[in-house]
Amino acid sequence: MRLRSLLASASVLAITATATLAVGVPAQATTDDPAVAKNLAAEVQKGEKVRAIIEIERGQSIAGVAKTAEAASDETKVISKAGSDGFIVATVDKPTLAELKTDDRVKAIYKDELSKPALDVSTKLIGSDKANQAGWTGKGSTVAIIDTGIDRDHPFFAGRIVGEACFSTVDSDPDYQAVSLCPNGQTAQTGAGAADAETAQCVVNGEVKCFHGTHVAGIAAGKKAGAAPSNGVAPEAGILPIQVFSRFNGPVCQELGISTPCFLSFTSDQKRALQYVDEVHAGLKVVAANMSLGGGPKYTFHCDGAALEPEILQLKDFGVSTVISSGNNGHADGVVNPGCIAAAVTVGATDDDDTPAPLGNRGPLIDFFAPGVAINSSLPGNTYGVMSGTSMAAPHVAGALALLRQAYPKLSGEKLVEKLQTTGKSITYPSGATTVTTKRIDLVAALPPVPTASPTPTAPQTATPTATPTATATPTRSQTSGPTFGTGTDPLPVPDTCKRGKGAKPLNAKQWATEMLRGKGTLDDKTLVCYLTLAQNGSKVFPEVTDTGSLGKAYKVLAPKSKTAKALLDRELLAAWLNYAHGVHNGSTKVHGSTTLTKVIGVAERYRTANGTSAQLKKTADYLYKYVNK
Description:
This protein is of the alpha/beta class. Helix 15 runs antiparallel to helix 17 (551-558).
């Protein structure tokens, strides 16, 4: 029972074989008749011979069905049956189709169509090729790929992997026999090489099985080189691969109907990965976290309270969209977890004709369609190959958000998603007992024709709060100005890996001012520059309203000579951001009662950017001083 309940929520890759997704929608004649694809039936009725896939019911004789098909008509030829997985391929005419439709051994009949396996088809469909030519390439933003790792030295990603991480379970339970895929063999690893998809545990019988993340990353942000089919959606965006899968050598694989060993991901590892993205998103300018995975039962309503909801909401508050594939279970009116989370951006798959892929989950809960059938992208070993599924659709959206961030650097992540929705192409389709319209992304419509300047992307945001925190009066603080900071006004280079610290106690503004003075504090200059970078990339005030682009400028904000309400609010607001960057507070930290850091900063920044009254500015500054910076 314990194993069964855990299997119900195990996450698997949202991917299927190309042939499965590329076929037409079957039409059922009666409840006992085989399903026959409508496009095949229509062509046969016109008198044409059609190359067909004839799927055989489990346990029935493939050879027997092949013999029946060949006997039905002199025009029928069985092309392939050897080594097939439950089907034969044959040419079908009217007599043969009529015979097969009454054969209880036949499960379904599909047209064996030709599909063009090329990434350039999908990028042309959504318009990212034209967007790239116009100068929108995703430069300045990063897409996190939470998946099976990446082929680190693949030419498709040359020079653009900005960081790596791995969160992978080790569990000796006989049912699991789970082994970590982190190169160090531990349950977590960060830094160069941490997300390597070509480690020994990823190899089975000489074949790299951790291929999925490499394919997904190429769709989102591959850049044409050598034998590459074309660019991905955002060819100059940074890539942050995060390995969240483990190798399972136990019977759990057979329970799921897959061969052993298999590669699965625990929700707990996904949760840790999202938390890691939260730690580094500002320094690396992450605009989207792609999760082409999922599993469990069908959800027709949003799954409020799901395990990953807090992390997804946290990232959303700071401008990072979590883009999730809808799953490949064929649900016409629902999705699987975690795509059922309302705060996620959930993506279904269409083919090159804008027809929803038959096995892709869809319906009212998905936010977008994107191409997901026969997508050619990178694979381990510096190669390329074709895959299909909603896994391939999601990274089209993640890459698109990087292009929009470049074009609209001041828009929040939520507004970027909204722009994709308002400009997308409407796809209307049946979903359960109703009809649903979902937008397929269209970057030509969503982006300006050409860049008018060289925008510097930022990742603004804290969410606009729904309530203003109340604050009680506090004593006015002593305004000790301190010495004048006269040199070093140019900002230092940002460290290669800029992430939040692990501070345990908040510093007040005066203490932060001391830290900004070389040789006076306990933190080195590189760490302080990193913290200022995190603040500037998350804030709407710094540096757009108040410049804190160097240690000297930050010092002047933290130790102002002026006693105006604006200066006091800037002082406390910058100290609050620095305490966040230092790791003392998270956005969800309740700083007073039920008021979170995200809410109070949202209030402060709204007042500061919307000309709040002096009383409002002063009251909010006092609140920050009393509850956040002490």
